Amino acid sequence: MKAENTGNRPRIAASSYLNTAPLIWSFTHGSQRDAVELFTDTAPARCASMLANGEVDVALVPVIEYQRIPDIAIVPDVCVGSKTAVRSVVLVTHKNNLKKVERVTLDESSRTSAALVKILFREFLGFEPQWEISAPDVKSMLARADAALIIGDPAMTIPRDQFRVFDLATLWHEFTGFGFVFAMWMMRRAAIEKVRPIDFAAARDEGLANLDRVIADYPHETQFSENDMKQYLAGNIVFRIDEEMRAGLQRYFELAHRHGLIAANKPPEFITS
Q1: Rounded CA gap, 135 and 133, in Å?
Q2: Quick one: 96 exposed, middle or buried, by C-beta within 10 A (0-12, 13-18, 19+)?
Q3: Sign of the C-alpha dihedral, residues 151, 40, 184, 118?
Q4: Dihedrals φ, ψ of 95, to 5°?
Q5: pLDDT reported for residue 3
Q6: Pick the residue with more confidence: 218 or 256?
Q7: What is the pLDDT of residues 5-31, one digit of tens each?
Q8: DSSP string computed for 237-272
Q9: Secondary structure class of 151 (helix, strand, coil)
C-alpha cells in the first residue's frame, strides 16, 4: 500500500482490523467521509512506516512508535486500548505456564505488542526467552517456538481448546493495575495546521453511536457473529483515555526505556485545539 498525495485533504492511515472500525467509520461512511484521504492496511506497523516516511499526515499507529518517529505529536483522548481482556492481542502456547517458555515467535505486523511481550518476560516473569520474528501463522510459528504472539482479528480465532492463550492486556493489568493503550492517532508536526480541522474524537463518538452500522459495514469476512463483534467493541476495547489509561501508557514507556526497547522516554505531547 502506497499513499499518493491526491489533493489538499489530509492523508490518514489506519489498520483494517475490527478494533479500528469505530474510529474510521466516520471517514468511510459517516459525516466526515469527504474530509480525508484514508488508507488502510492489515498491519499497524506498515501504517507507522507510512507516517515515518511522510506518505501520510496522520496514522493510527502502535504507541511505541511515538518514541521512535521524530517530529510527531499525539491526537488527545482517542485510542485503541483495553482495561482488562483485549482478546485480540495474545500469546499462544502449548505450555501451561509462561515460565516454561524458552523461545517466542513475534508477529512481524506488531510493534507495541512485541515490545510489551518482552517487557512482560523481562520485568515481571524475570527471564528472557529467545526471540524470532515471523508472519502471523500460528501453526508455523509454534513449529519452531514454544509461544507465538498473534494480534488483531486472527488472535480472536485461535481455538482455545487446542492452545493455552494468554491475553496481554490481562497480564499487563495483573502486573501493573493499569489498562493498556495499544494504538493512538499521531500526526507529523509539519501537518498540524492541515489536519487541525479533522475531529478524531467526534469521529470516534460517531462510530460508537452507530456500532450496529459499523459492524454491518465492516468489509472483511469474519467468523464472529454480530453480537460477538459488538461485545468485543463495546466490552473489550477502550477508545478513550482516562487517567488509568494514561498512567498505563506512561508506565509502558518507562519500562520500554528501562529494558532498552526505546532509546529515550520522551513525555507524551498531545495536540491542542
Answers
A1: 7
A2: exposed
A3: positive
A4: -80, 150
A5: 46
A6: 256
A7: 446 899 999 998 899 999 999 999 999
A8: -EEE--HHHHHHHHHHHHHHHHTTSSS--PPP-B--
A9: strand
pLDDT at 273: 64
Domains of the chain in start order, with CATH, are 11-84+180-258 (3.40.190.10), 89-164 (3.40.190.10)
Residue 230 in grid coordinates = 459488538
**Helix (H/G/I), strand (E/B), else coil: 163:** coil
Give the residue carrying C-alpha cell 485510542: 79
Q: What would the grid cell of residue 32 be?
A: 466526515
The pLDDT, as a whole number, for residue 1 is: 44
Helical H segments across the chain, by residue range: 21-28, 44-52, 112-119, 138-143, 168-176, 192-195, 200-209, 211-217, 226-231, 243-258
What single letter denotes the amino acid at residue 47? C
Q: Give the confidence band of 141 by pLDDT, cuts at 50, 70, 90.
A: very high
Tell me what the pLDDT averaged over the chain comes to: 92
